[in-house]
Amino acid sequence: MHPMMKPALRRAWRDRQTVQFGVTPAHAVVMGPVDTATGSFLELLDGTRGLPLLREEARAMGLPDGLVEALVRRLTAAGVLDDPGAGGPAADALRGRTGEVERLRPDLASLSVLHPEPGAAARKLAVRRLARVQVRGAGRVGAAVAAVLAASGVGRVDVLDGGCATAGDVAPGGLPDHSVGERRDLAARQLVRRSAPGKPPGAGESRGSAVGEPPLSLVIVAPRDGLAAYAPDAVTAEPWMATGTPHLYAGVIEATGLVGPLVLPGGTACAGCLARVRADHDAGWPRMLAQWRSGRGARAVPACDLALATTVAGLTAAHALSFLDGELPASTGARWEAALPLLDWRPERITPHQDCPCGAAGPRRGERVAGTGAPHDTMAG
């Protein structure tokens, strides 16, 4: 082990014997008492020395035997110590791609704050590299989402869309102006390649697939027409539900941006649940939705404020990365919405519907539960 104070956590002395690592309440750690000699020894924890050399340095500074091990244990438990060589074989392979690692150095620093154990940041980034994400939509939101995911180290980002790029698709961080007139999907794939810090992993590195493409880790539905994200079609989602593929909805409709829900098939509310819940609360919703989907009365250019679209794209990518890193972001089974001009983000919990066949609500009244001979009453206490 080569202990290293996490460089992402700024260090400051609260008083002569108390040191604080980190600035914000979400990540700061306070440790004390720390005497002056031990405080000076902290400067040596920069990842260039192993434990034997650190013991020698401690003795030369007049520090007691056993202090190095005790201090390393204490700092590790506090989540402020890293090891630049830890993380396992996948992390070692990532470190071998020097140019790629340099591009991702700020992301590694951020991950080191989120995941306290030594080597966890490199391990998480190595897992991202083996992930495959499909972005459905290459407009102002979708193209930017795809670019951010690729630039953040996701190894495979596929983009699906139809038609040719228009001037209205062009956006900072998204499709460039020279892509106007090109096929949207091809222009978006070129954007992904330019954004990625390195080449995608080879077939031999693909997780869970000996031959061909790796399975999808996540589908992001970010259509150019925000209605398809605001009122998603359950039929479109059927293949993802059948294969258990997580999928996340995002988009802009009129002057409202939305992120979520993140659907975990069979575990959280799906597009079918959303449609049923709305119909329960508004009898006219299905009739209006059918008219909107038919295109009747639709304007030629959907409203999509560029700043709002960019904000939605960034938040969507952040939620997706959180999920790929093994967390359950706030969009899991929920939708976050913000409307111009106030941009007050508000969550709406999407409840699984009892009549939806996705099964997220559990067995319905009278259904037999597997392995039992009696019907399950969902109203029982």
Name some characteristics of this structure.
381 residues; alpha/beta; Outer Surface Protein A, domain 3; Rossmann fold; 3 domains; three-stranded antiparallel beta sheet; 14% strand
Oligomer: single chain
* N→C terminal distance: 53 Å
User: Given the helix and strand composition, which structural class is it?
Assistant: alpha/beta
| Major sheet strand order | 7-6-8-9-10-11-12
Number of strands: 12
Q: For the record, what CATH class of the largest domain applies?
A: Alpha Beta
Name of the CATH architecture of the largest domain: 3-Layer(aba) Sandwich
Description:
By secondary structure, the protein is an alpha/beta fold. The protein has three domains: 4-82, Alpha-Beta Complex (Outer Surface Protein A, domain 3), CATH 3.90.930; 89-126, no CATH class; 130-349, NAD(P)-binding Rossmann-like Domain (Rossmann fold, 3-Layer(aba) Sandwich), CATH 3.40.50. Helices cover 36% and strands 14% of the residues. It has 14 helices and twelve strands. The chain has helices at residues 36-41, 51-60, 67-78, 89-95, 98-103, 105-114, 120-129, 142-151, 184-195, 227-230, 234-243, 271-281, 285-294, 306-324; strands at 4-5, 11-15, 18-21, 29-31, 81-82, 132-136, 156-160, 218-221, 247-253, 256-263, 334-339, 346-349. The protein has a seven-stranded mixed β-sheet with strand order 7-6-8-9-10-11-12. α4 (89-95) crosses α7, α8 runs parallel beside α9 and α8 crosses α14 (306-324). The radius of gyration is 25 Å and the shape is elongated. The protein starts with a strand and ends in a 32-residue tail after the last strand. The model is unreliable at 206-210 and 366-381 (pLDDT under 50).
